[in-house]
Amino acid sequence: MTINIGISQSHREYARDLLFKILSDYYILMIKTQNYHWNARGPHFHSYHQMLELQYNDLAQGVDLLAERIRSLGFHVPANYKNFMTHATLQEEMREPATEDMLKNLTHDHEYLIRETREAINKLKETGDENTLDLLVERLSLHEKTAWMLRSLNSHDS
Ligand SMILES: [Fe+2]
Predict the structure, then answer these.
(1) How far is the CA of 56 from the centre of ligand 1 (A)?
(2) pLDDT by residue (tens digit) across 65-75?
(3) Predicted confidence band at 158 (pLDDT cuts at 50, 70, 90)?
(4) Is-contact 77 139, C-beta < 8 A?
(5) Which of 45, 69, 87, 122 could lock onto 24 through a cystine, CB 3.0 to 4.6 A?
(6) Domain coordinates of the chain in residue numbers?
(7) What is 9-152's CATH superfamily?
(8) How far is the CA of 60 from the centre of ligand 1 (A)?
(9) Backbone angles phi and psi of 7, in degrees to 5
(10) Residue 113 C-beta-side C-alpha neighbours within 13 Å
(11) How far, in Å, is the centroid of ligand 1 from the Cα of 37?
(12) pLDDT score recorded for residue 138
């Protein structure tokens, strides 16, 4: 059945592509956050372990919301790791970083997602797709908060 929701095909395709790109980066960051949840060490282990669990749960929730938005726009969600790896910009963790480097890596990744999400919002502003914009603004707020919390754990940073 043809979709008729007042957003042109090209605008919906544009939103789908931006959403899927962010979704792919989420998968990379989600497994990296789980990796650090399991492998963090040191006197702050318990608080890092718990904080990182909240973060990967938030990313999992974001994945679901992004994918369901793609469906609402009338498209298939091509969810498989091959596609995620092809579309993502963020890099998987292949090493065994020190715990303080884990926090820095996550800060950089959340800051990347902030820039990527802000760019997507700017690109979609004129398309009249308020629901996608709402979702992205909500995601932007969450990443900014997470990046602030991660930065605050390094007392040398602002
Ligand atoms: Fe766990």
Answers:
(1) 10
(2) 999 999 999 99
(3) low
(4) no
(5) 87
(6) 9-152
(7) Ferritin, core subunit, four-helix bundle (1.20.1260.10)
(8) 14
(9) -125, 130
(10) 33
(11) 7
(12) 98
